[in-house]
Amino acid sequence: MEQEQVNEMTAFGLFAGVVVVGFVFAKLRSRGNEKPSVTKLMPPKH
Known about the structure:
Blueprint lengths: L1 H31 L5 H4 L5
């Protein structure tokens, strides 16, 4: 049972991290140049 809980917390942590990073990245990007919301869903092209 503990292992399942750890996996859930890890999955949630990764998901939350991706959402936060994506949100911050989108905010910083939108500050420089206004683009359609589609760019927020696409990964950065580096």
